[in-house]
Amino acid sequence: MNKYFKYIIVAISIAFIFIGIQRGEEGIVLQKAIKICLECIGVG
Length: 44
Description:
Elements: H1 5-22, H2 26-41
């Protein structure tokens, strides 16, 4: 493996995070996470 491979993966991950934020998807992800958590503990 290339020694820069992990840095490339981190850079790609950060780029996708910023793309998602620009598209306004963080609210959707948060709502889904809350729903899954509540279902997991049996409240929702």
